[in-house]
Amino acid sequence: LTCRNVIEFLMAYLDGELPAAQRAAFERHLSVCPSCVNYLATYREAVRLGRTAFGNLAPASPAQGAVPEGLVRAILAARRERA
Ligand SMILES: [Zn+2]
Questions:
Q1: Cα 31 to ligand 1 centroid, rounded to whole Å
Q2: Predicted confidence (pLDDT) per residue in 27-77, tens digit
Q3: Distance from residue 3's CA to the centre of ligand 1 (Å)
Q4: CA distances from 10 to 36, 39, 65, 70, 82 (A)
Q5: What is the mean pLDDT of residues 11-18?
Q6: Is residue 26 within 8 Å of residue 1, measured between CB atoms?
Q7: Inter-CA distances, 79 with 4, 38, 48, Å
Q8: What's the CA-to-centroid distance between 1 and ligand 1, angstroms?
Q9: Which residue, 14, 18, 27, 66, has fewest beta-carbon neighbours within 10 Å?
Q10: Residue 35 alpha carbon to ligand 1 centre in Å
Q11: Residue 4: its pLDDT value, please?
Q12: What span, in angstroms and rounded, lies between the C-alpha atoms of 61 and 66?
């Protein structure tokens, strides 16, 4: 999996639409690639700000923007390795 793949798969990943094998590869990449972790953090921040700005207009979708548990672990693992 490359950084480009991670960005391409990001939406599907966050929507829970990636097959298990791809999801595992995605999380493995994040655990070793700080730049993708940073990208993801930036992306999530943008989503959060977007929802704040357009929250009254967007349809209710509890799953949207939710962070899967495995992803949180991958990010924490990446941070630990850098520290
Ligand atoms: Zn990467």
A1: 9
A2: 999 999 999 999 888 888 887 777 776 655 555 555 555 667 788 788 888
A3: 4
A4: 10, 10, 11, 14, 23
A5: 86
A6: yes
A7: 21, 10, 22
A8: 8
A9: 66
A10: 6
A11: 93
A12: 10
Write the CB contacts of 74 (distance below 8 Å, at least 6 apart in sequence). Answer: 27, 28, 30, 31, 37
Question: Ligand 1 center to residue 28 CA distance, Å?
Answer: 10
Distance 53 CA to ligand 1 centre (A): 29
Q: What is the pLDDT of residue 82?
A: 67
Residues 27, 70: contact at Cβ < 8 Å? yes
The predicted structure's pLDDT at residue 83: 62
The alpha carbon of 58 and the centre of ligand 1 are apart by a number of angstroms equal to 31
